[in-house]
Amino acid sequence: MTDSERPKFSGQALKVYNRMLARVEARLGEMETRTRETLWEEIANAVEFENELEEMTREEVDLLATYLRRDLEHLMKFVDETGEGVGEWLRLDLSLIERQLSDLLFSIADKSQLDTLELDQKLHNHDVGHYISGEIATAGVLRCLSCGHMRCLTATSHIEPCEVCNSHYFERVTSRWPHSEDEETLPTDEES
Q1: What would the pLDDT profile of 106-145 be if each residue is shown by its tens digit?
Q2: Is the distance from CB of 38 to CB of 155 less than 8 angstroms?
Q3: Region of 176 on the Ramachandran plot (φ > 0 left; ψ -120 to 50 alpha; else beta)
């Protein structure tokens, strides 16, 4: 992937992604029952809201919505399969990120709300944990699919190419998920 093929965003992309996430969380918090469909509807509503503000192009907002869906889909799948919380999904010490972000993500991925999504998740089982440089992703740990180098995102960020091998392809790394016998661990400060 060349630099010209990577998505280009105006300087507002990270702010708009976080604002869309906050808007979805606030709307879902007002609902008695939440389903996957209501989540997608609220993301669509957040997209329309952002388009009305005209801070970014429609294409940029649509791409941010795709990134938001990917992150939330991966979070929901993780919580549903493991019963773990956001801290395990992020694979970060929660003190590294703002408490507000963790509360926001946790409220969207509340385990009791996700039980109704289990069948739908199994029917639409696709790999939502892959990322490409130039995309925007929320906090967490990404591993280069080419060389295995780990990158820690402490806030919503643009994904840059791997600093070791310049690859553009990553996967999200979470603690103890998926369950495997030969789990890899993050390198310690002494190893990196």
Answers
A1: 566 544 444 444 334 333 443 567 888 888 998 889 999 8
A2: no
A3: left
Give me the residues paired with residue 137 across strands. Answer: 157
Distance, CA of 145 to CA of 130 (rounded, Å): 9
Report the C-alpha gap between 137 and 157 in whole angstroms.
6
Mark residue 114 as left, alpha or beta (left: phi above 0; alpha: psi -120 to 50; beta: remaining): alpha
What pLDDT digit, counting tens, does each position of 153-176 carry? 989 999 999 999 988 889 888 765
The angle that helices 13-29 and 58-82 make with each other, rounded to 10 degrees, is: 50
pTM above 0.70, yes or no: no
Single-letter amino acid, residue 128: V
Cis amide bond preceding 178, omega within 30: yes
Adjacent-strand bridge partners of 150: 143
CA dihedral (147, 84, 114, 170) in degrees, to 10, reads -10
DSSP letter (8 states) at residue 135: S
Q: DSSP secondary-structure letter at 84?
A: -
